[in-house]
Amino acid sequence: MSDRLERAERDLLRLSTECSLLDSVSTLLEWDEEIAMPAGGVEIRSRQLALMAGLEHERLVDPRLGELLDILESEPSENSLPRAVNVRELRKLEQRQKKLQRGFVEEQVRVRTLAQHEYAAALERNDFSSYAPWLDRILKMKREEASLLANGGSLYDVLLDELEPGMTADFLSELFRALAPELKKLLGQVLGSTRRPEMSSLARPVPVAEQYRFAKETIRALGFDFSRGRLDEARHPFTVRVAPGDCRISTRFLPEDFSEGFFCGLHELGHGLYDQGLPDEYFGSPIGEAASLGIHESQARLWENIVGRRASFWKYFFPRLQQAFAPRFDDVSQDRFFGAINRVAPTFRRVRADEVTYNLHVMIRFELERAMMEGRLAVADLREAWNAEYREHLGLIPPDDASGVLQDGHWASGTFGYFPTYTLGNVIAAQLFAAAHKELGDLDAEFARGNFASLLSWLRNKVHRRGKEVGPERLVLEATGENISPRALVAALSDKVAAIYG
Amino acid sequence: MSDRLERAERDLLRLSTECSLLDSVSTLLEWDEEIAMPAGGVEIRSRQLALMAGLEHERLVDPRLGELLDILESEPSENSLPRAVNVRELRKLEQRQKKLQRGFVEEQVRVRTLAQHEYAAALERNDFSSYAPWLDRILKMKREEASLLANGGSLYDVLLDELEPGMTADFLSELFRALAPELKKLLGQVLGSTRRPEMSSLARPVPVAEQYRFAKETIRALGFDFSRGRLDEARHPFTVRVAPGDCRISTRFLPEDFSEGFFCGLHELGHGLYDQGLPDEYFGSPIGEAASLGIHESQARLWENIVGRRASFWKYFFPRLQQAFAPRFDDVSQDRFFGAINRVAPTFRRVRADEVTYNLHVMIRFELERAMMEGRLAVADLREAWNAEYREHLGLIPPDDASGVLQDGHWASGTFGYFPTYTLGNVIAAQLFAAAHKELGDLDAEFARGNFASLLSWLRNKVHRRGKEVGPERLVLEATGENISPRALVAALSDKVAAIYG
Fold first, then answer.
1. B173 near B477, Cβ under 8 Å?
2. Inter-chain touch B243–A41, beta carbons under 8 Å
3. Tally of CB atoms within 10 A around B136
4. In terms of C-beta density within 10 A (0-12 exposed, 13-18 middle, 19 or more buried), how is residue B292 classed?
5. Does residue A330 contact residue A455 with C-beta atoms inside 8 Å?
6. CA-to-CA distance for A369 and A138, rounded, in angstroms?
7. Whether B40 contacts chain A with CB within 8 A
8. How far apart are CA A253 and CA B311, in angstroms?
9. Which regions of A106-167 does DSSP assign to beta strands (E)?
10. pLDDT tens digits for B331-380?
11. pTM of structure
């Protein structure tokens, strides 16, 4: 490699690392805002975040970055995978940011920080109307951003692409068109069955401190490294990778039902294992980052549902749960418990939904946000549209805003295109697990002995360690030999419904 | 005011606000490092902090700042107090930063973040030697910084001036020379007395959760606003003002002795009340900041000791403590309790020292850090020198490093000149309280009824709301009519010793 090339690569890395550091500071500021910040801090927090975003923008539109990329693009990189990926990804970032003004970027961050605060207050008051003007403001800004980025193309796709590179709304529509009838068929089987899991086996109050202890021990046993991470309580649980060596997950415990906090914890654990498995040595370069949100969600849903709601998992953990919460679960059999944690029943809330109906919740949000982005649905009509969709697809009308249109904070944070990645995650998780199962043999025997290491190691190699090396579709293809497809998910859900509902 | 002047003032404010935002982000990063960050995060944290410091440096040495200050200095500011103060303070900052290179500033921040981590590990292992090379590295950097700033003047003074504007080592030496004999005389009276507080009245284990609740209630009752702040547990308690509306205090509870966590909490409360009382509307301008560390400590020591260890304070709070911790203190009389929390006895640890010996701990540190800064004491000889000083002034030889040279983390964080501000704080606190008492009348009657508002309001007007309007010496003079002097402190301590030891 020539001196000029080497120098360019070094300078690029320096610029890119500064962006990563600014980004990691923003991540910490956001984590703190959710977990620790007193209410009075929100105004300055919005300005701190705006400044970090502005400084990152400044670096990405710096002509020097374009020049460095020109130099590195002019010579194809022999055997330097990181460089090729970094050049590709930084060029993409540079092209996006050049279409936006710094003032606009900063204002967006500032407004969405305040909007999240207003959202939380509206949820507290169970009143969508006070938050609607803020959502409207967010929507306008996101549509403006999308217009600037899309060059006449689809506004929704251009936002989606940032979260899920290469994905399109058309692909997702097709996916839901294939998936929804299958899910509704399964739901019909469930509702028609005479068998009903006994939910009384979960309804045993456990103090939050005990729940926290058991969740933490389980999460540690599954491979999360607490010297490089932490577990907190949060109203809206989430996971962030502040930096290599600093990954933070959270969950929300209900004193009356341990399963909410536990499975939510496993979900975030899945995110956390991915984050802890990314190639830390590439911090500062795009190749060191996650492939996409869909891949991220696939890890979360895999540990939460495919592993966490599996009979063999509980063969190992159920006696431990009985002991940790003794004597509350002494009279519950493993079978009854297994049925209860896998109950299928339509509910209002996405985060508490079973595996079958979950994707219907997602589909509703996907359709609504796409309609808003395309100007077919106004914020003023959102509540009504939301309730109509719930009646149509789940046969339920939310009794209030908190159980309805206000339940998720994604739009308040300016994120459009996030929701469908949950279903992509479910689909990909099923594909990955099927492939791992085929390759690794009898995983259930291992799980029953408390051994999750070979599955984790497979995921590390096939997914985590690869970072942003290839796009999500290619990653799935290389890991499983298949394109993204709902077949494995439908098959797995059919098996489970059959096992529980006959 | 001319257009040109107005524009310059606006531009200056923008630059200054960016510096304040960067600074507030650093503050949050440091708070998180102590309170929440997993061990694995330290490497990236050190680089995040270095980047923030580098960006702030860049703004302070920007020629545009110098030009703006030139313009504003050229026209004396009629009736614009904020502008005059801001120009004065920003010029001072600019002059300092121009003497340092950005790389040096960043490296210092990076190394001290790592050094603090090494310090904590050494304290855990109770072994000074593994940390000594890091302290040596810190010391070398601080001496280099001081040399660059001092232009041949005193290295210690130039560092001190940053924390305590206008203060000098000579003034402090004089202060200790006046104070130490008085303290030793009081200590002699105590040791010669036959009266001894019964310490058994404090030795009642209370679970930390209960201690936390009582401390928080008390802190709220004394005026701390929890919608604009929070209280955490920390190994080394501290207070930070992340931003207006976001002030964070912390304390450290011992299950076996509630008094440690409680009084430490009152100390940090004092810092917190000052921070919450600063003129928030000036965020982004130097005038909105604290006058000095000495003034800050005066607020902490005033609430911790003068208020918190006062008989009238406990007339109100003791029945509440008895109730909160019932039945543990049911057999303790208020008098015995009052004696126990005011016991005077030499100890190894500064943070647990009584009011009389406390300043001897400070004097020792002041002498040692001054000697290190002036090249008269090497880190390799620090432990021996420390122990010799303790033998001379307190008649004790620390049994190990954790009770000796390793007990404070200030030097690890690169802070030289902090310690003497504790004694300045004690001195100033006594002066302020004496003046308030004279002006406000019978404060003890108010305290006994749980009313601390008139004292707080006096402090708000005389100290908090003034921010950095004037220097600390002038502030004390205007609030009390006196120059900084140890007389009020000695008088107050003499009264207390007489009351308890006869």
1. no
2. yes
3. 16
4. buried
5. no
6. 12
7. yes
8. 44
9. none
10. 999 999 999 999 999 999 999 999 999 999 999 999 999 999 999 999 99
11. 0.96
